[in-house]
Structure formats: C-alpha cells, structure tokens
Amino acid sequence: MEKKWWKEGVVYQIYPRSFKDSNGDGIGDLRGIIEKLDYIKELGADIIWLCPIYQSPNCDNGYDISDYRKIMKEFGTEEDFEELLHEMHKRGLKLIMDLVVNHTSDEHEWFVASKSSRENPYRDYYIWRDGKDGNPPNNWGSFFSGSAWKYDEATNQYYLHLFAEKQPDLNWENKKVREEIYDMMRFWLDKGIDGFRMDVINLISKVPGLPDGEKGEGALYGNGFPYTANGPRVHEYLQEMNREVLSKYDIMTVGETPGVDTESAKLYVNSDRNELNMLFQFELMDIDSGWGGKWDVKPWKLSTFKKIMYKWYEGLKEKGWNSLYLNNHDQPRMVSRFGNDKEYRQESAKMLATLLHTWQGTPYIYQGEEIGMTNVRFEDISEYRDIETLNMYNEKIRQGVPVETIMKSIYAKGRDNARTPMQWDASDNAGFTEGTPWIRVNPNYKEINVENALKDRNSVFYYYQKLIKLRKEHEIIVYGDVNLLMEDDENIFAYTRSYNDEKLLVILNFFEKEAEFKLDEGMKFDGAELLISNYEVDNPELKNMILRPYEARVYKIHHGL
Ligand code: GLC
Ligand code: CA
Q1: pTM for the whole thing?
Q2: pLDDT at residue 528 is higher than 90
Q3: Is 199 a catalytic residue?
Q4: Which stretches make up the Glycosyl hydrolase family 13 catalytic domain (predicted)?
Q5: Which ligand is nearest to the CA of 33?
C-alpha cells in the first residue's frame, strides 16, 4: 500500500465561530485559533481542517460565501490568516480549508450580476429556469425545508438552491464557472495551504432536464437527490480539477459526499482515478435515521454498525482510503449519540475514540470531542441558531406537529449540538468569550472543560493523546489489514489488525452492560502486551474476560492469534 502523510496523520476539525473568541464580540476568530495552536499540538493532531472562514453573510455560518478570496470580517483579516498559516507550519501542523463550490451566497458578486438580467454574462453561472404554470420548474425540496427553487420577480425565472434560499447552486456545466473555481483554488494553494475538504462535492453535476423527483405519501416536495447526487458529469469535473489544480501540489483532499455507497465511492477515491484522496461517507451517520430522514430517529444495532464499518474498509482497502469520524459540525456529539453522556461519559468517549484511532483510515477529531463534550438541550427554540433546525421547526409547526415532538428530534440530531462554544474552563461562558456568545454555552461547562481535562491524568484528553502517540509508534495502526471477530455479537466490537508479521487485537464493549469476550479455540500466541485501555487493568493477560461498561482494550500480539 502506498504510504502518504495524510494516511498517517490525525485531523482536528475547527468550527471557527465556536472555537475561541479573542476580542469579546462573542464570535470565535482566527486570533483565537492562533492562541490555541499549542493546545492542538499537545493533543498530537497533525492536520487542522478549518470550516469556512471566507467572507459571508452567514445565513449558514460561512457555507454561504460572498467572496472566496476574502476573510470573513468577524473572523479577522488577511494578515491574521497569513499569521495563522505561518504559526501552524512553524509547529509542523498542516492546514486544510473548506471548499464550498456547489453554491455561493446570493450576495456573491457573480450572483448579483446573474440576477440583474437574463442577458447578463453571469446569468449562466447559476441554474435559472422558467416556472411551470405559476409553479417552480420542478418539485424538488431543499435540504433546508421548502422548495429548492426561488422565484425572482424582476426576471420572471426561478433559480435552484439545494440548500438555503441564500445559497444558489452554481452551474458547473459552464466552463467559465469551473475555471474561476480552479483559479480561486490556486490562489489558496499558492499561499501554502495543504489541502481542501470539499463541501457536498458530489452534488455539482445535475441530471439534464432536472426531472421531477418521486414524492412520498404526504410529502410536501419531491426527492431531487437521485438527480443531483453523483450526477452524470461529476467525475469528469473532478478529473479536470485534479488535472488543472490538485495534481500540481502535495496536498490532501477529502470530499463530503452524501448518498455515496462503497461502489460509487471507489470512483471518487481510487488512486488510479485521479480525483480525491478520501471522502466522508454518510452510511454510518444514517444508521439511526428512519424513513422520514435524519429527524426521524430510530434505534440502531451494533451488528449493523460493524457491517457498515467493515464494508467501507473492504471496499476501499486496495486503492482507496477511508476517513473515520463519528461527529462533526453537522452531526450530534458522538458520546451522546453512540456512547453514554451521563454515568459513563468518559469511559464511552474513550471507547469510541479507540475505535476511530485503531481502525484503518484517517481519524478526524471534531473540536471538543477530545474532552468528551456532549449534546445540549435548550428549552426554547429561540436559543437555536442553525438554519436547518429553524426551517425544519417552522415547517413542522405549520404542519401541526407538537412542539415536544420537534424538540425531541432537535435534541437528538440538531446541528447546534456540535456548535455550542468550545469549553475551555469553568469561568463565565466557559472561557470562550468575554462578551455574549453568539450561541449559548452548554451548561455542563463547569465540569466538562479543557482546564479540568489537562489537570486530570485520566481524562479523555490524555487518552486521545496516547492513542495518537500509538499511531505514530506503530505503523500497523495506520496500514494494517482489518479482520472482524464476533461479527454478529450485539455487545462487543472486536477485530484484529495485521501488518507484515505483526498483529493487534482490539476489544470494545459498546454498551453499559458487562459483556463476555471469548478467544476462539484456534487462537494461539506467545504473549500479548496491553497497549492501551480505558480502565485500570489489574491483570493485563489476554484470555477470556468479562468486560466492564464501555471497556476498551488494545493488545499487541506476539507470534500468533
Ligand atoms: C455541508 C456542510 C454543512 C452545510 C451544507 C451546505 O453539508 O457541512 O454545514 O450546511 O454543506 O453548504
Ligand atoms: Ca471575535
């Protein structure tokens, strides 16, 4: 297998708005990030992914960009950015930036021009269509509720927006659009950044004709997803982008790709395809979604969880590579969703971390994960800020769904769970800001915060630090093959890793209930060294054992198994 720095590294994701405010305006900023680089370095991460920091009216917190080459005023200046990059590289940290090119803001100068008249040369930068008898061009719904089309009175046409109204989709069929984007990418790469995380990059090619989507019973809109995800020209575009831009730099790329399965994933990431290095799959994130989509929360089974993880490992192992994540700025906190954020918060956070950092792929840590930050429950909808959450809330209220039912799904799945400010210490507003934070701090900050974590040798933080260190010491953790044990067991997640003649054995009790781990009859070995565990272990010998709640152990096996 080809060795690469981005396979060996660990990524730390920053949501700048919520990370650290340096000037008391209640909004995190670049100087705040600079202040905390030593903290990230101490954790051991190698690569920082910054969510969008470009100029934006912030209808979707920076995912609606009005100028790709400018820094958002609230976040700082161009000089702050240069300093941030310099301070990162000085510490051996790499920087990957968010690339949001499926859409821009409606305040981007291209869109302003595009909207000004049908004849404007920028008209074709976006996707404009005539209505049908006073209705939108087709029945597609937007990801953020409502129709995916917005009517413009002045020019009597509709424009497509798969996300918010203020996020018009770019027309990638227009070669000029693609060239402008490649140019902009070179602008950042020439400054020395180390790669891109590409926002919903598999949505950039739409099926010509934009046909109506299937409409489920009682649904307000049709499903345009089959006509927008993995569209007919997406690989042509990405190969062009790779040829024109990516291949000229030593960088890493990761695509965010909803609706990609392991077969279609290979087309994006297999190294002989010259497109991307890795992608974020959603199959695991959808494990607890019912028929009604993400807000329709259903129970999940460990056997399914394992099957999904293994399928992705197997699918991409030869020529591709996986990215490993259980939460980010769009997903609830992993310890609340897959672990136990009460009695076993620390144990379960460490157990899940063990999985992410001993499976094959590049692990991503989302800010606060390393101290076991949890979901939040604000009582009133007015405390919420996320446009997806608010639009969904309003739509459901109009449909007559009771408030309690809606709040329940927001508590489980709302994106603001991940966006409450980073908890630095027990002072007011968790040390995030000296002003009023743009979104309230999670009330548990007095207990869960960085200062406490750094004082406690047994904290989740130091466990992550140790996992990352192990990754650096043992190539097998990066490159080793995976083999599942006890596949159908609903309590224990166990697997081996093998590389040359080395072997690791990872045993995870995924739940609160004690569970028995049994060695197979045929497993023979000379000895086993316990590399890490989230509990005190009196007897580190490897044998049949009863695992405690959320117990995790990683053994290095000598000769055999
Ligand atoms: C991606 C981003 C999300 C954003 C959306 C639209 O899914 O991760 O935060 O709202 O794209 O840009
Ligand atoms: Ca600020």
Answers
A1: 0.98
A2: yes
A3: yes
A4: 13-419
A5: 2
